[in-house]
């Protein structure tokens, strides 16, 4: 299952944002650091209008969207890589996620203490990233000293270590595919992609997007979004109208988190009993997609029929698309495209 870790300094609003995204259970929120010790976990459906359009044209009642898991990880502080503030435990939680949703505090509230003397978003971002980098340096050192590795692997570790010592993240270094595969086994924190979000005050919601290091970032009032998430839909719409807003940012955050992952979505409508969305790594083949649907499909794979979802919706049905010759026939090595509708043909044994 795809995991997105909500990361940032203590009192940045991570648990509040988690509560804005998850229906249940809710994370405990307080105005002091380290309210969260154990990670909070919640699964959300990824909004997907295309999936519902497919269900509509094929008259399918059961619809199953794909999902992602959000993990509310306790705040990191300076020295986390040395164990400060239970840092080792929290860094381990970050290793388990596929994407880092890095929440940076912009809001001002005297009742919610900041771990530093002042609110400085760029400094806060740098502190967390430095701890991730220092933890990676420790991982490289441990690999060199405690495990038997080849000369080529040691040279690669030295190359990455020198890069990190320049204050650069491992995700930014150029590596061959073979080198990248070895580095992937180390599960370095700075190889993970980051999705930055600015946590702003309610008084700033109608202002332009905030910038971090001169780059605009998605600006969210986590407190407001969490309150909206508690309301019934009718009350939520009235609240939004009073605030001069069209919709909550919950859907946008979920969608952008999903899109930031290196994956694609494909659909199945087999037997017209269920319209379902699935995830697949970008560059994944038809046989891999088949395995997602059912493990037996891998060894018994015969062929895959495929059509882009939007093209199928325009035609009006799978049957019509077949009659018009719009559906492609592919073998195991077909590279599945984003928003393909697939029907896998497999032998029965």
TrEMBL record:
Keywords: ATP-binding, Magnesium, Metal-binding, Nucleotide-binding
Cited InterPro entries: ATPase_YchF/OLA1, Beta-grasp_dom_sf, G_OBG, GTP-bd, P-loop_NTPase, TGS-like, TGS-like_dom_sf, YchF_C
One Pfam family from the record: MMR_HSR1
Cofactor(s) the protein needs: Mg(2+)
Residues annotated as domain OBG-type G: 2-240
SUPFAM superfamilies: P-loop containing nucleoside triphosphate hydrolases, TGS-like
Coiled coil stretches, renumbered: none
Keyword Nucleotide-binding: yes
GO MF annotations, alphabetized: ATP binding; ATP hydrolysis activity; GTP binding; metal ion binding
Keyword rRNA processing: no
Gene Ontology cellular component terms for the protein in this record: cytoplasm
Record protein name field: Redox-regulated ATPase YchF
Native source organism of the sequence: Candidatus Roizmanbacteria bacterium CG23_combo_of_CG06-09_8_20_14_all_35_49
């Amino acid at each position: 299952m795809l995991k997105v870790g909500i990361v940032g300094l203590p009192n940045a609003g991570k648990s509040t944002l988690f509560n804005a995204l998850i229906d249940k259970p809710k994370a405990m929120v307080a105005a002091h650091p380290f309210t969260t010790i154990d990670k909070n976990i919640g699964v959300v459906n990824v909004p997907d209008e295309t999936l519902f359009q497919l269900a509509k044209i094929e008259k399918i009642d059961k619809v199953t969207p794909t999902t992602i898991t959000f993990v509310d990880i306790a705040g990191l502080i300076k020295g986390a890589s040395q164990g400060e503030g239970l840092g080792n435990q929290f860094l381990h939680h970050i290793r388990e996620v596929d994407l880092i949703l890095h929440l940076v505090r912009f809001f001002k509230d005297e009742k919610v203490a900041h771990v530093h003397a002042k609110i400085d978003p760029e400094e806060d971002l740098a502190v967390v990233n430095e701890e991730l980098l220092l933890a990676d340096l420790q991982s490289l050192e441990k690999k060199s000293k405690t495990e038997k590795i080849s000369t080529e692997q040691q040279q690669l570790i030295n190359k990455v270590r020198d890069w990190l010592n320049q204050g650069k993240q491992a995700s930014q270094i150029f590596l061959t595919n073979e080198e990248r595969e070895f580095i992937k086994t180390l599960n370095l924190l700075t190889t993970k992609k980051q999705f930055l979000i600015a946590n702003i005050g309610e008084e700033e919601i109608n202002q332009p997007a905030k910038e971090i290091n001169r780059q605009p970032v998605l600006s969210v009032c986590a407190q407001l979004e969490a309150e909206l998430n508690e309301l019934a839909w009718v009350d939520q719409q009235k609240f939004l109208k009073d605030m001069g807003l069209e919709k909550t940012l919950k859907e946008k955050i979920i969608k952008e988190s999903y899109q930031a992952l290196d994956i694609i979505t494909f659909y199945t409508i087999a037997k017209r009993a269920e319209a379902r969305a699935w995830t697949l790594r970008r560059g994944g083949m038809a046989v891999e997609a088949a395995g997602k649907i059912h493990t037996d499909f891998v060894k018994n794979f015969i062929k895959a029929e495929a059509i882009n979802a939007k093209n199928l919706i325009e035609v009006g049905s799978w049957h019509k698309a077949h009659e018009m010759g719009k559906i492609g026939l592919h073998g195991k090595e077909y590279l599945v495209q984003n928003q393909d509708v697939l029907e896998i043909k497999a032998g029965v044994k």
